[in-house]
């Protein structure tokens, strides 16, 4: 596991323009931060649990990999790996991934419309449908935007409120360079609960990926392996 006892080092990465957040021909790693509007403390245990569930659903759909995370009371940190976009995604694979985000009834609706259009000889609609779904994958901006939007809709329904939930779109740092930059950034993220005085060690802070990994979480453990191995 990672060494949590040493110094954090400096915050690693460089700010990058939105227009080059993703380069489809190579894998990249990003540190993403987003805060609640007016920095309100809205994340109770219930909200944190729902957010993490949605995070894993978005991961399964998009192909963007959650390497590390920490959800605080008014903001979150994510360390995300964005693989190079595959040259082609089959319709079967796209449909399988859609199952992470959409209910069985919603999937049945999609299938019904597709079959109607196909029976009418409108194969162009079918191609466009899967094209639109595939375009949402392997894209950092889409990943974060959809995650925040889905959570906002849920939270607003729960609280019977309207309006924006987030302070800004999101902050993003490209993690690159020598000196185990990805490891140092992961340590920075995982220690947020400790620095805030909410726990004495990251494994004691329930809402970070290190604690999930220590409890046997398969996805969180895979993230740590990716971080340490650099692959």
Describe this protein's structure:
It is a single chain. This protein has 9 helices and 5 strands. With 231 residues, the protein is of the alpha+beta class. A 5-stranded antiparallel beta sheet has the order 1-5-2-4-3, with helices on both faces. α1 runs antiparallel to α5. The longest helix has 20 residues. About 5% of the residues have low confidence.
> Structural class, from secondary structure content?
alpha+beta
What would you call the shape? globular
> Counting H and I runs of at least 4 residues, what is the number of helices?
9
Percent of sequence in beta strands: 5-15%
Spatial strand sequence of the major β-sheet: 1-5-2-4-3
In round numbers, the mean pLDDT is 90
Work out the number of β strands: 5
Radius of gyration: 19 Å
Can you write the helix and strand succession as a string?
Answer: EEHEEHHHHEHHHH
**Percent in helix:** 40-55%
Low-confidence stretches: 4-15
Distance between the termini: 16 Å
Main β-sheet description:
5 strands, antiparallel
